[in-house]
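Blinded run. Sample ID left blank on purpose so nobody reads anything into the name before looking at the predicted structure. Input follows.
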Amino acid sequence: MATFTALASLLAPLTAQSHAAPLHTFTLRQDGTPEAYDESLAVACLQGLVNRDGPSLYVLSRGSERPRYWLDLMSSGGRWLEGRDPRPLTDLSELVALAGDALKGAVIWDPAVPATVNVATTAAGVLDGVVLGPELADARLAEWDLPVLLDLRGMFTGAETGSAKNDAYRWAIREYLDPGHCSTRMLCLYEDSLGTRDAGDIKYVLTRDWAVWHRAFVFDLSPWGDEAPEDDPSQALGLDKETYEMILSRVHRQAGGEHMTELTGFFNFTKYSNMPGHPSAHEPVPTEWESVWLMSPYNCFQNTISSDCFNQSLHAQAPRAPLQQDPAAGPRLVGDRNYLCILMADYDSATTIYDFIPRIWHDPARGTLPLAWGINPNLLDTYPDIIAYLYSTATPADTFTSDASAAGYMNPNRIAPESLPLFVRHNRAYFEEADMTMAPMVLDWGEPTAAVKDAFVEFAPDGFATIVMDLHQQGGRSPEPHVWRGMTVTNLINDACNFSDPESTAAVMSAAMDREGTSAPSFHFFRIVWTTPTEIVATLDALRRLRPDLDIEVIAPADFFAMLGEKCSR
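Blinded prediction complete.
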């Protein structure tokens, strides 16, 4: 069984320093009104500008306990924010004053064209501005004595493409992306204001500090080319997808093979998949897969959901040091048993690391059985302090592995052969920092090619597992378990991913084991999403009651891959 520690050196850079600068805070009202939406939008943009010069502004919320949770934790125990004197700010004017010369003016968006809230955010990042709705601009601009850098009202009517939405994004491509003013390392797929401003829904508004901080291009488009999106039903078929690929291709060309590009955020379920009010031909999960299919050839990987992720521009600046997982004791002898490994899955997004994991991580049963925790190491760029905290509080039974698919969610088979060296460099850097050697949840449309397996050997030599979904019906199939250049290759079983209750999940696991074969020794790697260790323990107890004929043992992922590799090599 593997044991884990954080490097002793990790704590040094996180230790509070004397004479630390104050930490300014601002609390969002988050009361479900359009006014709260507008305020949050302005606050997020100002935070992105202020924090470019260092981690100075922290946003709290009356609607979410999570920012306070992380602030309290990171301000105690010798962690990096300890000793920072909190300085509460209560009005937007105080934030404007705090921004000072970093703020060059205002960008006014057009509520009549929801996409312009994203175009305005892009412009604010490039022009060092704050995004304001018309009402807020009318109320405060004179007080702040700010020039209007850009007024988007009335600019987009559909005259270019027949779609005001696509006209807006194509204008932004020409104005900011084509000239190289935007980041080639970050794209933001944030839902626009349609239906969200009226409801005061700010989950992809408070995140815009991250977009402004990065000078990222922000958009909200459908990946499908065979049906119109719900928010723009009269557009020419495939127009959204065409604009989407324009964005990807421009960033890919400008990156020049020097680095990969992260796309943070997620497609809008209501607009682009089969949801109430939008009878789409495409279900949500296939829409997720189609998005990744679309972006992977452009050396772009997804950080899936990043909604409700506060203070990314501040957390990202936490000091970083290499993390360490103590190596496993070594492969055990394979006996005549039924071996299971459990991947605690889907911590591959900023939202799940920031918002979901505290409830799961502090479960009292964690540490009572070996578990693999799927955490994509590219999130070290977003929440390095949170991931370091997880490492420092891990038990000997906790193993950290990548989640979907490595250091970021992409389809490796879709990466051009000439880009695979870049893919290796990208992943090796993050895997080394996170001390990871296994990739147990590689998502793709067919079994890994020889070239892809060669690539993974370079950074995940201790194990590779995949989920194959051939949604394009190109003949993709799952691989048979085998060893490739010393790396064990197998399948990740997805049948029990959505936990309901222990008995039902145990029945699903039993059926999957029968399908794959239970002739001992047998090996079964299960993915289970957002479930507590207590529920896992109860499920395994139920499975043993259901299947007294099986000699079940749960083992750590390093042992699982090593022992399965031994069996395959016989």
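Unblinding after everyone has recorded impressions. The chain is about 35% helix and 15% strand.
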